[in-house]
Amino acid sequence: MVKKLFIDDNNMNTTQEQLDLSDLFNHDKDSIDKYKKGINTATENVLSFLHNRTQPFSGVAHEELQKVVDKIDFKEAPTSSHLVFEELQEIYLKHAVAFHLPKYIAHLNCPIVIPSLIGEQILSAINSSLDTWDQSAGGTLIEQKLIDWTGQQIGYPTPDGVFTSGGTQSNLMAILLMRDSFYQKKQQYDVTKFGVNTDKGKLKIFCSECSHFSVKKSAALLGLGEDAVISIPVDDNFKMDCEALESAILKEFIDGNCPIGVVATAGTTDYGSIDPLKSIGVITERYQLWFHVDAAVGGGLLLSNEHKYLLDGIEKSDSTTIDYHKTYFQTVSCSGFIVKEPHNLNLISHHAEYLNPKACKDAGVPNQVDKSLQTTKRFDALKLWLTFRLMGTEKLGSYYDQTLALTKVAADCIQNRKDFELLNPPSLHCLVFRFAPINLNADQLNQLNILIRKKLFSNGQAVVAGTKFKGNNYLKFTILNPTMSKENFEEILSILAMIGEQLLEEEKQFI
Ligand SMILES: Cc1ncc(COP(=O)(O)O)c(C=O)c1O
């Protein structure tokens, strides 16, 4: 036991009472015992989550949980840790949405593989920070090797990049490099020092109308404004219309603005569609624009021998976003931003004397902070490393391929029913559809589908997503779980239809 230190008036240390430091994680026996016991308790709680869950959501209302949360006071810990975990069950574990169950078919949350969980356990205990060599050592090399692997699969000859917190941060980095390289190359202007300058025209970025909102958000954050993002229409398969893209670029040049880059989406959030990467590569080359591929969703294709060709043309891009926490079965967070030409990352390097002085770089000491928006950074790469080493990329790829095959099965299930309409052809993992049983008008159909989803969520039997297309409301399946089956899809559709039929009976507005 350590003595608690008090400083007296003469700055002399005096000891007055015992200080219990056994909650600190270290090699002391008390600490190790507490750690082991704590990990056992954590495991038991996780196992009870797995065992007690038969449906993906409890259906609890947020108002109900809010009342319980409001009563918690943090000052003193309860006398027994048992009480704390009971409380956690009540507030969280009983209700947390269970992504591993096959009736969770809503958003881009994949079930996770056990090697990723093992990695999570190790990385949080060792707690390396992946900014500098002196805070990570071998961890930096692990991250760099995985970035290199990803870049090689994309087809970049000498890639570089960093792990990030998610697709949003990776896309922000892409727009940042797009902006800064434009100013540097085309206007010999130091935007880092002087800020955005529109004297020679407003900067413009192009992406499809189905691209992720983080593109607009990044433009706003980087001082370009959301209006800098020009939405290009999509074709019937929800892919960017390249003729419209080229016309839009030309129009901006004619209007005296400055097109700086195109963001293609490889796997749109709602439809899974992949923009025509080869054609976009030709256009960006013609007009010397930065070409970024947001493959947050479609990045899993790099694992698939059978389907990798769907990304043909990605190798022409300057940068790519990949979310390992979407299609590589990794725990949140685990994402990558990869560039074709490493020197572009210098645009965001900042050398701080206390952390990464230029001398370290000159001496060839590896680090990731020179390329990163984050300083202190989780060692998420360890999870992917252990996944690749314990499973191998072939096996991981077979899990991914299974989800693609299942999406086609689910599409058939929807199309085989007369009471549902499928909006998009199956592409990657996403199916957008609606319950449309009888001759209802557009407003009634919209109301009905909104209510079906709401009702389903409040009973929790299954969780499906929703989205809008041309002002109409749809339901959405995102299929990322290789344990799903045809029976599973049929059952979910029957539940949706049953809720829909009940609503039609109960609600006068549909008559
Ligand atoms: C196409 C696409 N890009 C980027 C993102 C953002 O990723 P994250 O949620 O990891 O920030 C998403 C999220 O769904 C996405 O679908």
From TrEMBL:
Keyword terms of this UniProt record: Decarboxylase, Lyase, Pyridoxal phosphate
Cofactor: pyridoxal 5'-phosphate
Pfam families per UniProt: Pyridoxal_deC
GO molecular function, one term: carboxy-lyase activity
Modified residues (N6-(pyridoxal phosphate)lysine): 326
Entries under InterPro entries matching the protein: Aromatic_deC (IPR010977), PyrdxlP-dep_de-COase (IPR002129), PyrdxlP-dep_Trfase (IPR015424), PyrdxlP-dep_Trfase_major (IPR015421), PyrdxlP-dep_Trfase_small (IPR015422)
Cellular component, GO, one term: cytoplasm
Single GO BP term: carboxylic acid metabolic process
Similarity annotation: Belongs to the group II decarboxylase family.
Protein name listed in UniProt: Decarboxylase
Species of provenance: Flammeovirga pectinis
